[in-house]
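[recover] target loaded
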């Protein structure tokens, strides 16, 4: 769904005037169509995460053809894997190594996945600041996996990622999903997790895999308690 200024105003809890100001001054991603601005949900969520802005749950509006449930953060992370000392001297080589080592179904074309990840980076960096990037494809529906997957990679050395804060990246969360809603749900959960002090601290010190997964499980329980009728939508 293409959002309009009124929708973005509601999702980010700001005035429409502020949205127009962000378009002009803060590079809020917008597409001008027939003299009106249109916004992509995934691009909007990317931008809001980088700016550390809270999001309304409505950004996860369900698509008609999406399944009803998606894995929680810990489940998706167990599926994708946690990796340490990932080698690479630049963005392209690091992403190539991440795609090579991450846990994916055999039918996924890893060369194609790398190609679309690099294409996404050429449009706009997925570096969200504080040394963290979240590589993902711009159109998740082209990647065929049964459920969304999240992979965590700690790099052997920091790499320039053209992040908004100018800092090199040392940690990658890579998302692979077959549906746009699944992608948004997992990206939103990750955004929520990265605002939690214990989880963020565990990532910053490259804690052991099981400790990171335990922290993710704690956050998943928090999200479930806050939204007991909707397992998929973090508040």
């Amino acid at each position: 769904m293409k959002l309009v200024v009124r929708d973005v105003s509601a999702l980010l809890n700001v005035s429409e005037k502020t949205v127009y100001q962000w378009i002009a001054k803060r590079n809020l991603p917008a597409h001008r169509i027939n003299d009106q601005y249109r916004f992509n949900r995934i691009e909007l969520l990317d931008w809001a995460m980088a700016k550390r802005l809270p999001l309304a749950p409505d950004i996860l509006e369900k698509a008609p053809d999406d399944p009803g449930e998606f894995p929680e953060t810990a489940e998706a992370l167990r599926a994708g894997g946690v990796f340490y000392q990932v080698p690479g001297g630049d963005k392209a080589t690091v992403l190539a190594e991440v795609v090579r080592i991450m846990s994916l179904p055999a039918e996924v074309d890893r060369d194609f996945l790398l190609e679309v990840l690099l294409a996404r980076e050429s449009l706009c960096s997925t570096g969200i600041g504080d040394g963290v990037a979240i590589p993902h494809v711009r159109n998740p529906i082209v990647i065929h996996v049964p459920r969304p997957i999240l992979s965590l990679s700690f790099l052997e050395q920091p790499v320039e990622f053209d992040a908004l804060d100018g800092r090199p990246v040392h940690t990658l969360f890579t998302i692979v999903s077959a549906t746009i809603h699944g992608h948004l749900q997992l990206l939103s959960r990750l955004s929520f997790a990265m605002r939690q002090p214990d989880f963020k601290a565990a990532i910053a010190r490259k804690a052991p895999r099981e400790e990171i997964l335990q922290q993710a499980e704690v956050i998943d329980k928090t999200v479930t308690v806050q939204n007991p009728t909707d397992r998929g939508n973090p508040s």
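[recover] notes: The two ends are 21 Å apart (CA to CA).
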